[in-house]
Amino acid sequence: MTSRAGASTPHDDAERRAIEHDRDLAWELYNAQPTHPRIPELAQSVLAREPTFTGMIILTALHREVCGEIDEARRLLQELMGRRDRQYLNAVKKLRDLEFSAGNYAEMRRLCEVVLREDPEAGWLEQMELGSALAFTGDPELAWERFAAALATAAALNPEEYTFALGQRATRLWAAMAPPELILPAAEAAIAADPTEELLGLVLGFARLYDYRPEDALQQFYALLRDDPTMEMAQVGVALTKGFLTPIERGDATIERMRELGAGEVAWKVLRDKYLSTGLKDALAALDEVLPAALAASLRAPLDPEAAAAAGGEDTLLAWHDGQQPGTGGLWGAEGDFRLLSAAEIAETDAAIERATGAFTGWESKPDYFWLIATDDAGRYLLEAAGGRLCSWSAEGPDVEIAPSFADWVWDRVAALEGRDARPGRQGSMSASSA
Questions:
Q1: What CATH superfamily classification does 13-122 receive?
Q2: pLDDT tens digits, one per residue of 130-141
Q3: pTM of the prediction?
């Protein structure tokens, strides 16, 4: 019983031990099975007997979050913040983490700033949290500066903190989709300090491939497979690296030629899209959520996966929709009024390119493309070129890069249609919170 909100009646030793036992049991149960239905029951029981144990509100919020009840978890944490009791900073940090998981990066950034303002002695990890928030809200240069400053702070503490900070910096650079030339030295430093970092070991292998060091990359992938022969992405890394080395060893290509083809960029995108869910399949799924009716009506029926794989185009795209009706490119609202090509149109265009006739007589100067994607029905085409870049081509002028990849072009359409853009650093204009 309480005499007023937030104040408790003194307990005898036995009562106190019983309350603390239930509090500890609730946390132990959460650590063992976070969705267990007894967790909120125990937390409520503790609060009823000792209202000052407001850590139970945090525990209940964590339980609600892992159960998928995000709005309720957010409400509980915001309510606890409003009390400004001794759990205030913990509530802010947990809400910050929740908003990051929910993709509300603007709100995450605000909460990071609250933590640093309220706690002048906040450690280097809190500085890195703000760095991540800066990266995810479109201020990457400030983010990299924060990471560097936090690392310097950790280095002045002790070797263990510095080793941990090296791993944190590399992981956060990777999660924020930093340029691989920044990630490579960060991952090398982190792995040198702690070779057991499995994800960073994988990132390092792909970063070396991006840096056109295939022998070093292969050595890294083999080291990972010695520790875990079932690691799928290490196996993918070996296959991609051998794709680098085999034509070079046969004398059919050189490292310089692989650079021209952008093979390192393609390999890096394979890893990025796998782990950050930013690939073409993810982008098309996000587009389906916001596709306007008129645009949807202009798209042809999909090919079945087997037919899409056998066609001469991008099979993920053709399995989504087999092209688009002529003259409907303007429905995308994108520059150039390009509309998607069908598998049959791609085959017909490829044949014309092979014959080098008509508009395609100049195509021999453009041999390094992967897939035809779209046309404006007036002689211009979108194609996936070296490095996976999406380029516009016509007989009347040079290639023009339209987007880093076709997946990026689709994500741009998702963003323009006010859908959720999964690419880090592209959500700075999101509302602060859905609460």
A1: Tetratricopeptide repeat domain (1.25.40.10)
A2: 999 999 999 999
A3: 0.81
